[in-house]
Write a structure and sequence with these properties.
Blueprint lengths: L23 H14 L3 E10 L2 E9 L8 H14 L6 E8 L2 E9 H8 L5 H5 L3 E4 L23 E13 L6 E16 L2 E12 L11 E11 L6 E9 L7 E12 L3 E12 L3 E14 L4 E9 L5 E11 L2 E10 L3 E10 L12 E5 L2 E9 L6 H6 L10 H5 L7 H10 L2
Parallel strand pairs: 2-3, 6-18
Antiparallel strand pairs: 1-2, 3-4, 4-5, 6-7, 7-8, 8-9, 9-10, 10-11, 11-12, 12-13, 13-14, 14-15, 15-16, 16-17, 17-19
Helix pairs in contact: 1-2
Amino acid sequence: FPLSYPGTPAPPRDELGPAAAPGPRAATSLIQDDLVQLGLESVQVVIVPTGEQRRLVVSVENRRYTLNEFDAVAAVLPVAARHVGGDVEEVAVRLQRRGLTTAEVRCPLDAYRQWARGETSAREFAAQVRVQALPASVRHEVSTSPTEVANRPWLHSDVMISPYLFTEVGTEEATLVTGWLLQPQVSVPLARGLQADARWKYPVSGALVRGRQKRLYTDEALLSYALQPVRGCLVQVLGGRFSDHSFQEWDGFGAELAAPLGRDGLAHVLVARLDNDELGKVTYAIADYWHQIPRWEVQIRALGGQFLFEDNGWGLDLIRYLGEVQLAAGYRRTGADALAELRASLPLGPRRQPRPPASVRLRLADSFDYRARSILGDRNYVTLAQRVAKELSVTPNLVDAFFNRDRFSSGFFMIYLERSR
């Protein structure tokens, strides 16, 4: 598995402008055509006057570069630099998800050209880059040479597959018991903010799935709608079958909220009302706070509330990145018991999908995710380990899908630049 970012080749010097750049209307059309050819969606390009300067604003929806949203920025910048002249001083790349703008990466064009030519370091370039989550909207009424939105993503379906490893560690039954499953899933954007997702599990081998019938089990089936009710806040409402990464069935509805706090923080809340065959009606309500420490490629997550099996408590996670590999250790304390978790997320698919989004695209899932849990005490029973501090799985959730795993910050962009050469 790749443990660092791949090299990002600099464009040829003669393609970085601005010597033979076309006029504004031709430039915006050329940029849009090139980005659509790269497989980006909902592409719109405008030039906005800002005082005595002019800014190129490129809006894209990215489902081609699926491991890191900054890969889409790296694809847009050389195209912009190739086609605009010296009268445009700044470029802003606005990243979208389901028609909602999630982040903006803005930099002076000359600073990008100098970095691409190797004349400045990544740190010097990054000092002039601004990354903002949930930016203000662009005033199109004062823009010049705007293009229409091209290559809408609606009904461009992804059919994905990945392996899934289910384990019991250090219980009264065994030191380590495993079960391997195949995990197909499908994702279909339907309209602005609206998306359908489903995931199944198929038992393959291992003691934990040996007695199960060889058929597809519906692990998750959700219809979700995302919106931005006020600036600086995203909300997602969901309904259908939720997952807890086991064979339990949780049907109901929920709502999710995420809002950036300051430069390095993100507040997140997930509340759901669910129906379980064993427990009946249950309420799930967890609030968490994510804090970035980009220079160490670390995130800290603090959480608390009522978990799936109605045990109340709190927890703390330490998350470390090695490129696109994510390693995490967690502690949970509830009224039922104390528990430790180890998690790993490893890239499974390529950084750039081999095919642009189309009517139906078959591909590997982005990552292989594994989680091990153990009670911290002398009563690590199977039933207890599976129920303590159990969290609800939501695909796609706001933190991962809309905020790039909470990596929208100038600090994480600088780390990305330093590792991309």
